Amino acid sequence: MKDSYGRTIDYMRISVTDRCNLRCKYCMPEGIRCVPSEEILTLEEICQVAACGGELGIRHIRITGGEPLVRKNCCHLVRQLKGLSGIEKVTITTNGMLLKEHLEDLVEGGIDGINISMDTRDRQRFREITGSDGAEQVLESIRLAAARPVAVKVNAVSLDLGEENLVRMAELAREYPVDVRFIEMMPIGYGKAFPVMDHGKLLERLGKLYPGLEDDPRVHGSGPAVYYRIPGFKGSIGLISAIHGKFCDRCNRVRLTSQGQLKTCLCYEDGADLRAILRGEGKAETRRQLLLEAIRQAVEKKPAAHCFDCPGQITEQRSMVMIGG
Q: Which positions ≥6 away from 148 have C-beta within 8 Å?
């Protein structure tokens, strides 16, 4: 499936819930309201959208939230998505708090990759950012996941927490066969109040700390990260630089929010209301055809690029937890 700019769209990020068991300040701080459960897509509805995506050329699905593992039967959803025609990979992004108890079910369900979000290994700073004393719990999840035959990545938002924090996070790639990726803050929702760290400067800092740092040209997945290798490390270091390393010309993704809106760019509120089609009247085959056409049309209208560098042009007003990570 190609958009009007010739980009191949083969990656769908699906948010299965707007709930989360952490309260990260830049994403879902205390006091934020969740939508009523009846407004959230059912797992069956998610599978219907994913099946249409597979028919149109979607090959990689990432399950996100909120925190996807708070959604009942999330691991069963993985198994269902893996069985859909056309879908080659199913991965998940989690904060790691519940991963230990669900890891076996995810692996048995055929999960292809697990991304674990963690900005700091420092217990006090972790508590300040997330509102939870769960740093050791998440580190245990990283250790356990890294021991399984699954690709594991650690996602750290590039908060300027000092050189020691940068080193301690990077060192996870020395200790375990995981990729550690630093992600520029998205100026969406509560993230607008946080400064964006220039990844050009971050790369300079990493180069000084690790003089042997070199480009890693290997393919690590379907995302936009640029990777680097450090001698002696089991994993690689990745940078996802949406602001200072704009990669819109090779964007390959769309997002399905937990409420059923298909979004083609984080910047803009535009999208297709797939929930209305899923819950509309008429025969199942008629709704399927309407879904296929709505997805095609949304992809056709996908913008050329985001406008994060021009905040006044951003039309999306929702927080990231409402959109999906």
A: 103, 107
